[in-house]
Amino acid sequence: MMYKLSTNGLNSIKSFENLRLETYRCSAGVLTIGYGHTGKDVKVGMRITEKQALSLLAKDTDFASRYVNSLQIAKTQNQFDALTSFVFNVGCGNMGRSTLLKRIRQGADEKTIRYEWQRWNKANGVVQNGLIRRRKEEADLYFKK
Question: How distant, in Å, are the alpha carbons of 32, 48, 103 from that of 37?
């Protein structure tokens, strides 16, 4: 089944990312703007409008959503939204190489999947409180009935 990011899922991502209309370096040191947008198009000193930030967010979440759909592991809307938030944050490559993905595909139990999810709590090797909170909320959403 193909899913689309729900309004709840989008609002969750927005709440984690916070809107910034000028470029900044995130906790991982990556040049970022808007709602967590990164990439070659982001330049030092860049400024955007809220409308532009929402447009970038739509493109970025669409990219993450298409990748999550391609994995064919989400069985519910909540799982899809949680996985899309995770991929939006860590990237497709990291998700593809993750033990989290491997455990989900293996049908591991909730405790094991939560453990793997919580391991993604660092930026440049430093544990981040915001990532601890984000991973807990994503995992809670993943297992929400």
Answer: 5, 11, 28
* pLDDT profile of the chain (145 residues), mean per 10: 96 96 93 96 97 98 98 98 97 97 98 98 94 98 96
DSSP-based three-state secondary structure for 128: coil
- Find the distance separating the first CA and the last CA of the chain, reported in whole Å: 18
Q: Cβ neighbours of residue 73 under 8 Å, at least 6 residues apart?
A: 79, 83, 101, 104, 105
Residue positions annotated with a catalytic role: 17
Spatial separation of the C-alpha atoms in residues 121 and 35, rounded to whole Å? 19
Comparing CA positions, the residue from 76, 96, 54 lying closest to residue 141 is 76
Residues 123, 26: contact at Cβ < 8 Å? yes
